[in-house]
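quick one before i forget lol
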Amino acid sequence: MNVSQYISNKIDGGADSGSFTSSVTKIAIISIAMGLAVMVVSFAILEGFRNEIQSKIFSFGSHLQISKYDTNNSLEVEPIGEPQLIQELKRNPQVKSFQPFARKTAIIKTKDEVLGVVLKGIDEKNGQSLMRKNLVEGKFLSFPDSSASNDVLVSRKVADKLRLKPGDNAQFYFIQNPPRVRRFTVRGIYQTGLDEFDEVYVIGDIRQVRDLAGWPDSLVGGMEVTLKDFRRLDIVADNLYENLRYDLKLDKITEQYAQLFDWLQLLNRNVVIFLLLIIFVATFNMVATIFIMILERTNMIGVLKAIGATDNQIRSMFFFRGLSLTMRGMLYGNIVGLGFCAIQYFFHPIPLDPENYYMDRVPIHWDLFIILVLNAATFLTSLLAVLIPTYLIARIKPVTAIKFD
């Protein structure tokens, strides 16, 4: 241990708990702790919102959607050949999985209510559907090998409007020539919180849609593609588009639901501005604390200079003092921030209104990299704040400082 660090420890351990410097020191520690805690919680919640909402969107459209090019804006699409498209997707190393789909508009009629919906047929040959995580009641669809399943999933909103529950039957009327009627059983109820999906879609077996449309097993309405890395969406989309047939179109999920992704981007900008203000306040408090320490220890600085201590040695003494405050503040900040996140993650004490926030509780996402970055940013800015006022020491004259009261 060098002399500067030794003196710094003595000052730290011998500080009068009732002195003004002691009070300011506690404020500096609390400022760093609360600043770091708020940043950790803010990013955990922001990433939680982003992941939850993106997960709900991806469960209905994945990252990319390939379908027949058509000027008609109807939710029903023209069929495309499945085998050729599958070969093209398998050749792309960035494609993680893909799932065929088909849609058919219908009217659900129960004993007391009537409601228009879209039956979306899915298939789980190439992996489980992302819709499984949205299930809130009942069971997911079964896909028997022998025939098409008569089970469907309805959203919580549709179930409430039609007074349906798992196990109930409902008549589906399909407007086509000739009109068709199917009796389906509600096997489960899902909920995403996104009206774009919950008010429109009923999930069923794609073989039912094929049968209603008169398609052979080789035709599908389109293909939903999930990528290995969502951040490479634009690059992979361009590459896939260049290799598609002229009569196919490719839609990116960020363009289909642009309003939701724009909202997430706006949230991100607001949080960044908020965090910059927090860092500024914590830095300002640290600068003020070190200034006060220097002023209160002016006599000591004068004595140390008179006996031969250099400016760098005295500056290091206050640097180690600031380092000690920073480390203590960061320790308390991590305990508070991570503790709050853990409580919310496991026990969900803070609820949300699904009508406004698309989920029923405040989400938490654990990201070790972001936590380390926030700690590093807090550490570096605090040390920079410590160094700024220590340069005042070079201007202190020993004779004047010893007389200073």
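fyi The radius of gyration is 31 Å.
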